[in-house]
């Protein structure tokens, strides 16, 4: 039989759910999906291992097809058997394959086969997804040709791609030779046919990739905030926090250690990211770790990395956070919670600017800016023998203290507006806004959880709002029950009847959470009368708004 006689409908059983080549199960593969797989492998493993995997995949594919062709048909000669592989390759849609020449010396065993691959799917997808390449990219195709020819001739035949459309050649072409016929200069290409134990590497890199993807997603969210110049503390009204921001902006370009202190929820990590984004290291990683959340053994491995086999569960070598943050910033949150032994190890790293992975004696240089944060009084901890004084001074070359939200009430309104806008975008609530009646409640609350508690309160209110307005009843009960909203006290001898009436209306409206229908019932008047009286109330002068709250139920939002 001749290779040119092969026809798809006679060769392959196209029965539904059972596509096969005379008993060998086949699956139609999507070339674009294969290209995406190639991209993922390149990202995870690099070019060398990706080429090796795809080459060997093609090799085994070619061998299987050659065996099937030998089992099914009687060929006129081995050249027709070889050309049948090119024909089958074409039928399968990988490329329009043709053999230009076949030269086999039975006496010496030398073999040389020239082949062209027109319209190579691999080259086409590479150009589409990755653009021009400096090297040939038809790895599955060369592997297939090698596997097919090796089976036919009973010895190893290796194909090397000599031309490729992905590197701007007109067509793709290859040369196949036996091992002895390849010169020393070309033998480097043959290593891609060799097997390597990369299963562990794939597994390890896959886990690392997933972790990095999670970190990148989190970092991107915060970086987007910073890049838009609208982090939660850009619109600062309080003088105390304005000074903190000015100091952070000033020291950002200087490559020095920073210790950020403040109560939980004040935004210490946000401040660290703010400094990083304005430093010379902004284009490099910002890596954060909560030191208080990890036991000492895990923290050491997390920071410095470890060598495979150094402890139970250390299956693979692991790169520590110091190395991951190379040229960037490492943020050590809750630094006050680490053990004395860990403090000593960290001090040495900061002094020597080098680390050793757990279970390894090799010294590795690091180039990292270190920022740390704590909600503890480290000076008190030093006196109590709980924290090393030398480490404190090493970390706190610059110390920034973030005041609690209760000490900067001027910032509550701009922060609230910021979070309203954030959750409006997150929950697709374009008309979301604060009702004016919420302001006094927000400003009179002590906020023990600081900015984080405020953010959570606004998120809760955003979820509970029904008509786009965030009203007092949507705020957490702890805020509403924290105490009565301060109100001015009227002097009976120096006020008019209208003022007393206004005050009483305001009080009733407060008690019914701004519900004007209920307020009218309590007051014994109609809703229309209440509405008319509210319209007659003079606006509170700007210089007296600290003494008086806006009318509850007002439709004037922030």
> What does the largest sheet look like?
5 strands, parallel
CATH topology of the largest domain: Rossmann fold
The CATH superfamily of the largest domain is: P-loop containing nucleotide triphosphate hydrolases
The share of residues in extended strands comes to: 5-15%
Termini distance? 85 Å
- The CATH architecture of the largest domain comes to 3-Layer(aba) Sandwich
DSSP strand count: 17
| Mean pLDDT over the residues | 82
Poorly predicted ranges (pLDDT <50, ≥5 residues)? Answer: 225-231, 484-488, 538-558
How helix-rich are the residues, as a percent range?
40-55%
Name the overall outline. elongated
Characterization of this structure:
- With 558 residues, this protein is α/β, with parallel strands linked by helices.
- It has four domains: 3-196, 2-Layer Sandwich (Muramoyl-pentapeptide Carboxypeptidase, domain 2), CATH 3.30.1380; 204-403, P-loop containing nucleotide triphosphate hydrolases (Rossmann fold, 3-Layer(aba) Sandwich); 406-480, Helicase, Ruva Protein, domain 3, CATH 1.10.8; 492-544, Homeodomain-like (Arc Repressor Mutant, subunit A, Orthogonal Bundle).
- It is 44% helix and 13% strand.
- It has 21 helices and 17 strands.
- The chain has helices at residues 8-11, 31-45, 47-72, 78-91, 121-129, 139-153, 199-227, 239-251, 268-277, 296-304, 321-324, 340-352, 378-383, 389-395, 412-426, 438-444, 450-464, 477-480, 497-511, 516-523, 527-536, and strands at residues 20-21, 24-25, 96-104, 111-118, 157-163, 172-178, 258-261, 286-290, 305-306, 318-319, 329-333, 354-355, 364-365, 369-374, 398-401, 433-434, 469-470.
- The strands form six sheets. It has a five-stranded parallel beta sheet. A four-stranded antiparallel beta sheet has the order 3-4-6-5. The protein has a two-stranded antiparallel sheet with strand order 1-2.
- The model is unreliable at 225-231, 484-488 and 538-558 (pLDDT under 50).
